[in-house]
Amino acid sequence: MSEVHINHVYKRFGDVTAVDDLSLLFKAGEFVSVLGPSGCGKTTLLRMLAGLETPSAGEISIGDKVVNDLPPGSRDIAMVFQTYALYPHMTVRGNIEYPLKKRRTPKAERAVKVKDAAELLQLEELLDRKPRQLSGGQQQRVALGRALVRDPAVFLLDEPLSNLDAKLRAHMRAELIQLHERIGKTMVYVTHDQLEAMTMSHRIAVLRFGVLQQFASPDEVYRKPANEFVAGFIGTPSMNFIAGEIDNSDGKLTFCGGGVALSVQAGLLPDGLIADGDKFLVKMGFRPEDIFIGDQGDDALVSVVEPTGHEVIVLIDLNGNEVVARVNPDVRLKAGDKVKLRFRPDKLHFFGTKEGIRLNV
Amino acid sequence: MSADTTAKLPWFRRSYRNFSLEEKYAVLGMILIAPTVMTFCAVIAYPLIAAIYLSFFSIYTPTMEGHWVGFSNYATLLQSGEFWRSLWNNIIWTVGTLTLQILFGILVAMMLHQNMVFRSLARSLVLFPYFLSTVVAVLVWKWLFNDLYGVLNHLFMWAGVIDMPVDWLGKMPNAMLSLIFVGAWKYFPFVVIAVLARLQSIPEELYEAAKIDGAGVFARFFDVTLPQLKDVLVVIILLRTIWDFKEFDLINLMTGGGPIIATQTLSLMVYKEAFALNQMGASSAVAVLMMLVMLVFMALYLRKAKGPSE
Amino acid sequence: MSLKKKSRRVLFNLFAWSVIGLIAFPLIWMLVTSIKPQSELFLIPPTLLPSEITFEHYWRLIDETPFLTYMKNSIILALSTTAVVIVIATLGAHSLLRFSYPGRERLAQLVLFTYLLPSVVLIIPLYFLMIWIGLANSLISLVIAYTTFSLPYALWLLRSFMAAIPDDLESAALVDGATRMEAFIDVILPQALPGIISTALFTMILAWNEYLYALVLVNTDESRPLTTGVMSILITSFNIEWSLLMAASVMMSVPLIVAFVFLQKYLTRGFGAGAVKG
């Protein structure tokens, strides 16, 4: 169990900056997800933690040791690869045993440890098979077993579930959570799947173009997205945005945009953000579940209705802006219906137009 | 940027222990490639440079003594009919045998692509000439071409194609035609395998779609197969051009360049100048000129080979 | 299957096998000639099947000519060239693929370039070199000369085989505690083995069939390999004995036939893999 400290780390490949001045501190025993769209530098970050890439600048420490110039094998880390990277010519036993062999663990001890890991992951029956004789889920388990068996301080997982089918993925998610609870090791989990990040982690680091966007608990990332990118990236369907302006007349804030005028609840925005009589360009964001369709509010037109069973996703045309709403399936709607929309006043998010920084308190 | 600004000494001022992981890996990589580089320098780079250097000398082979003559070897060559004749022969041989190889290669590849009995045996038999030693191929064909007892003359006479035994290798244009034909027989399997591998990767749906659109056998070949083969054919043609152009063994063993110099290509001229006429300098000059001609095709191939892999 | 379809299939097979028969005919004729009695050789018209099978030519080849010496030389040459080249090329290909250092890309290009270089360009300086270091007329001189074409070839072929091994495998081994050399030995080499076998097979065939260097660099029967050796039987004999030469040709082709029968998988896999796929 160790802390991981990433201190002003850069990684450049030629002209491309894959990781840009990243500083993060993972607490010992924490389950951290690194989340972002493909190409955001999350895998590069993980490979730098593993020692498979060297930072162009900055420092990485695991525990209290700076590991920049340590080879992967001396870093007390284990890694599960997206492709599993099982050694095709070795049996399952050979695969799980390999890290122990490289650490010169005595044979008897190796046998015990392999047996324990196999038991934990229900691989006992498969120990003498070759990887190609296993299903995707079983291969995944062997990859986990190979990481578990040497009892490392930090686990690095690179999109380990992305090659599994949806059902198995849900199952493995639960198993990974249990596993983490049992062994309590620091885990760094790289994924582009926000569902995985939200359900499994203590904290999520959201990356974009190699730059850290937000590092916070899943709840906070969802409720208080640090900027427009995070707000739009987290949540399905994504957050709605309407560009407009807020003006302050006599201390009363009003948002105007997209043909909508609504007063902004007091305390939502910091005092003095907008001087009296002044205007401020913003983007207003609201999640699909934070709008109501009813008898009062702004006029809108239903354009598409997508029932999913437990809820209905409705695409609504609000004065030319497309707005997505999530409503109760009991509300009977069809395309072409004229409806009225109301916003939950306490769930409005405001972002600056430049760089999309969150303005809310 | 902390590590960037903490000024490090250049690598050659530090001991290996103070190298970063990346630098240590680079050192290991260079150690692994070192045997290759050393061998290359000794047996390829050095001879190549030496060949160019020697081409400015006049050297008598048995004594290996010579003197600097500047460009005079080149000047003599470019004025001599023999050089141009050899280059022309080289082009005829290359174009002729390559055309046959490609046509025959595509045909046989398409045949082997069909469902036929004992296909893998058929494939082995087709491949065999390519792997056969040129010496063996030449001996066998010389025996087939033999004017008195050769099977070919008997066969053609029996079939009434000719009334008199033909001198296949001692006369022109027979000698060149025979060479081109034997070259095609020996090297067409290369085309077969490369094309066959590509054919097997053309999705069946393309043919089914063409069938539904009412395309006949020939339309399917020209509209579906050929466009799919285009890329691999370009590479095959470039490679085989290079290899056929530098062919030595087959021509030297079959005709020795004869009758007189009617089938002498540049490779043969290099050999003859050096070891029959004992003119090493002039021989090197021919070799250098030959390489210059080939550089065009090599450059094309290098560009082609680099393209798709990156 | 309808009758029309069936007969079309039969016709196609007949056609295809006639074509293959024509392609293979020279080889069949070589075999037939080598086991015909001398007296039957000059019959007009020639007989396709010998009336009597004899191995006298093979015995004469072994008894009366230095054929066995040539064969021994060829075997030594093929094996040692292959051993040297495979070791150097496997290390080199691994370095070119999975390490980064200045000049690596350029070097890979250079390998491909030398792979296309004509041997006649190198032969005169190599001839000088061998005389100068006193290796002329020795098998070692041929091993050295053969690396000029077989090393670039093997490197290029191995590079394309080894490029297919996923990078993650080596990374996994490193994370599991292996050094880079250990990862190479434990993980990369076993994965590259089929490619190495293919490459070795091709290198062996190249060395076995080489003619030009042998012609220029070796002039004594003690060091002559089969290619130039058999040609010297042709030249030195008073009149050309075709059955003897055909017997020699068959013997020279035996290793190839063995490779074809038992190792075809490796042959077709390696065929042009480096060349055509780039």
Describe the structure.
The complex is a heterotrimer of chains A (361), B (310) and C (278). Chain A has helices spanning 42-50, 92-102, 107-120, 136-148, 166-183, 194-200, 218-223, 228-233; strands spanning 4-13, 16-26, 31-35, 57-62, 65-66, 77-80, 154-158, 186-191, 203-208, 211-216, 240-249, 252-257, 260-263, 279-286, 291-294, 298-307, 312-318, 321-327, 338-343, 349-352. Chain A is α+β, with helices and mostly antiparallel strands and 361 residues long. Chain A has two domains: 4-233, Rossmann fold; 240-352, Nucleic acid-binding proteins (OB fold (Dihydrolipoamide Acetyltransferase, E2P), Beta Barrel), CATH 2.40.50.140. In chain A, the strands form four sheets. A six-stranded mixed beta sheet of chain A has the order 6-7-8-3-9-10, sandwiched between helices. In chain A, helix 2 (92-102) packs across helix 3 and helix 2 runs parallel beside helix 4 (136-148). The longest helix of chain A is centred in the middle third of the chain and has 18 residues, at 166-183. The mean pLDDT of chain A is 90. With 310 residues, chain B is mostly helical. Chain B has one domain (81-309): MetI-like (MetI-like fold, Orthogonal Bundle), CATH 1.10.3720.10. Chain B is built from 13 helices and two strands. In chain B, helix 4 (81-113) runs antiparallel to helix 10 and helix 5 crosses helix 8 (174-199). The longest helix of chain B has 34 residues, at 21-54. Residues 1-6 of chain B have low confidence and may be disordered. The two termini of chain C are 43 Å apart. Chain C has two domains: 3-54, no CATH class; 59-277, MetI-like (MetI-like fold, Orthogonal Bundle), CATH 1.10.3720.10. Residues 274-278 of chain C have low confidence and may be disordered. Chain C is flat and about 75 Å long. Chain C contains 14 helices and no strands. Chain C has helices at 3-34, 38-41, 56-64, 67-98, 104-116, 119-132, 139-162, 167-175, 180-209, 212-217, 226-236, 242-262, 264-270, 273-277. With 278 residues, chain C is mainly alpha-helical. Chain C is 78% helix and 0% strand. Chains in contact: A-B, A-C, B-C.
